[in-house]
Design goal:
17 strands; alpha+beta; 331 residues; 32% strand; twelve-stranded mixed β-sheet
Length: 331
């Protein structure tokens, strides 16, 4: 089952479900967040709740996409209570991609990135159900940084660059007793500033403080073991970049359960009612292939298990001649 949301002309959010090619409105006035919190409180599965509610008329998802009506699959009514986070060096090949970004740096016996990658390969999938080695982790922002499918990913005026990262994200709500509940998985563009990161790997935290987009549709159920998708960058009618991206545990050095554990082990991330969008990493970047994206370029990420592709244009502000210092006032 795939679930999505769109905003009606009256401003109300409508949940949509589909199994196969046809999509239908779910017979409810609640948002997906509200339905999920009800399920968490009552101990009911999301798929079962949708089946019990039933469906109304069919909807044209492509038309809604073109009109700009589609929303991320889940939102929080207060954006400050939605957390955008992620993990890196989790996919086989991701260390090589990271190394190519830092080519020309001072040679060492083994970089910290490679050490962390090897730790994941050796201990990221423990067979006994115990926690494995912790991955690289980063923070991207709160719900104000979550961009709807079709909307622009804005690169700030102080940025050095802005490029796509095609990933799979897990979407979660925290139940009334602090238990994390996974709603499902969706395509994600973990948009980042790779030029800044290339200057020094310790700039990774800065490079990740950018918007991200998730959706349009969320897969309810288990994540496929072997996900084979495509990442593209379009400029007008030209495809500047097209390359497969792989995900799913068959292509990862960490299990999903291990990545989830090391995020939700912190009480900070188990606050009742919060929403989490956690991105699991990638090994495919157009930047690593030498592409510098420009204002108006379109990122397109698709994988058949996740329904419609995720598309977002890049909005890149021209850097000012001199960046003004942020004014801080004393009270």
């Amino acid at each position: 089952m795939l679930l999505s949301q769109y905003r009606k002309p009256d401003g109300r959010i409508q949940v949509v479900a589909r199994d196969g090619t046809e999509a239908f409105e779910v017979r409810t006035v609640k948002t997906l967040y509200e339905l999920a919190m009800d399920c968490a409180a009552e101990g009911q599965g999301l798929r079962d709740r949708i089946a019990r509610l039933g469906l109304n008329g069919a909807v044209d998802m492509e038309r809604l996409y073109a009109e700009g009506s589609l929303l991320p699959p889940v939102l929080h009514p207060d954006p400050a209570h939605l957390h955008l986070t992620g993990t890196g060096l989790t996919h086989l090949g991701s260390a090589a991609t990271r190394a190519s970004m830092h080519a020309g740096a001072k040679a060492e016996n083994e970089t910290d990135s490679m050490k962390m990658f090897r730790m994941g390969v050796e201990g990221g999938k423990p067979a006994n159900g115990a926690p494995g080695v912790q991955p690289e982790w980063f923070y991207k922002g709160n719900g104000t940084a979550l961009v709807a499918p079709g909307s622009a990913l804005a690169s700030p005026e102080f940025a050095d660059d802005g490029g796509e990262e095609p990933e799979i994200a897990g979407l979660y709500v925290i139940g009334p007793d602090g238990t994390p509940f996974r709603l499902g998985f969706a395509l994600a563009n973990e948009f980042s500033d790779h030029v800044m990161e290339k200057k020094n790997y310790l700039y990774l935290a800065h490079s990740k403080l950018r918007p991200a987009s998730v959706g349009p549709e969320m897969l309810v159920g288990d994540l496929p073991q072997d996900i084979r998708g495509t990442s593209r960058v379009r400029r007008g009618n030209e495809v500047l970049f097209e390359k497969p991206f792989l995900s799913g545990e068959a292509n990862m050095s960490h299990s999903i359960a291990n990545l989830e554990h090391h995020h939700f082990k912190y009480p900070l991330f188990r606050q009742p009612g919060d929403v989490h969008v956690h991105m699991f990493g990638t090994a495919t970047l157009s930047f690593a292939e030498g592409l510098s994206c420009a204002d108006g370029d379109i990122f397109e990420i698709e994988a058949s298990d996740f329904g419609l592709p995720l598309r977002n244009p890049l909005s890149r502000a021209a850097p000012p001649a001199a960046l003004a210092r942020t004014e801080i006032r004393a009270l």
